[in-house]
Amino acid sequence: MHILDAVFLMSNTKVEGCPDPIFKEVAFIGRSNVGKSSLINMLVNKKGLAKTSSTPGKTQTINHFEVKVKHGKNWYLVDLPGYGYAKKSKSSRKDWQSMIKHYLEERENLTCTFVLIDLRHEAQKIDIEFMERLLKDGIPMAIVFTKADKLKDQAAVKAFEQYESVLKSKWGDTPNLFISSAESQLGKDRLLQFISTIV
């Protein structure tokens, strides 16, 4: 996939306000501080498109970007709020959860939700529960392990295999799995190739 440009379109707190579904779209979500913005910027080769921050929980809206490609149709990339940020109030977390839930269930042109997982950490209950809800609701999903550059090659492989084993023990099979690094651009080509088949 040859990306020409990626542009910010709009932010919303309700799925009804999202852009007209004239293009297919993929969404990215994960716990706060998982490296979501850095991964998005790396994929579209546009530093600063998705705003990175040292403050967890910065993304609080459904953010739409249009990705323009040289051959084929353009597509939407969606940056969703992170989940599991404990320092937000209960009411704020409830509002976020409702916003994300409605978007995932009602957005008709959504072809895949990429759940981002920090490869350095063991399987966390909050991530597993979120993914299980997606599976239960029949929402197409893939998993992207981020920050692989923070581990040595052998440690990264071991961490991946351990996480994969946990998923297989729970589900018997796994969705598509990707290992990535925004720093080294590891996984970029494979992710874009996969996206090209679903948009």
In short:
This protein is of the alpha/beta class and 199 residues long.
Key words describing this protein structure:
Rossmann fold; 199 residues; alpha/beta
Describe the structure.
With 199 residues, the chain is α/β, with parallel strands linked by helices. It has one domain (3-196): P-loop containing nucleotide triphosphate hydrolases (Rossmann fold), CATH 3.40.50. It is built from five helices and seven strands. Strands 1-3-4-2-5-6-7 form a seven-stranded mixed β-sheet, with helices on both faces.
Helix-strand layout with pairing:
Elements: E1 3-12, E2 25-30, H1 36-44, E3 62-69, E4 75-79, H2 90-106, E5 110-118, H3 125-136, E6 141-146, H4 153-171, E7 176-179, H5 188-196
Parallel strand pairs: 2-4, 2-5, 5-6, 6-7
Antiparallel strand pairs: 1-3, 3-4
Detail the poorly predicted runs. none
Shape by Cα distribution: globular
Number of helices: 5
Overall pLDDT: 90
The N- to C-terminal Cα distance equals 11 Å
Total strands = 7
User: Largest sheet, described in full?
Assistant: 7 strands, mixed
- Summarize the helix and strand pattern as letters: EEHEEHEHEHEH
